[in-house]
Design a protein that fits this description.
Strand content: under 5%
Structural class: mainly alpha
Distance between the termini: 80 Å
Order of helices and strands: H
Largest sheet: none
Number of domains: 1
Number of strands: 0
Radius of gyration: 24 Å
Keywords: Membrane, Transmembrane, Transmembrane helix
Shape: rod-shaped
Amino acid sequence: MYHSKFKRSSNQTVRLKISLAYLIENIQFYTFRFRLITSAGLQFFYIMLVNVTLG
């Protein structure tokens, strides 16, 4: 009985670790995309600002 309980708990731990790793990977991916979009948006905004100021 104890053995099966231990097996189940270890299986749960493995599943938790996998889901945690997946979550961290997704967070890193979305952070990267967000930075990319933000930097592009800031560059566009800066170019527009310069055009308005000079024009």
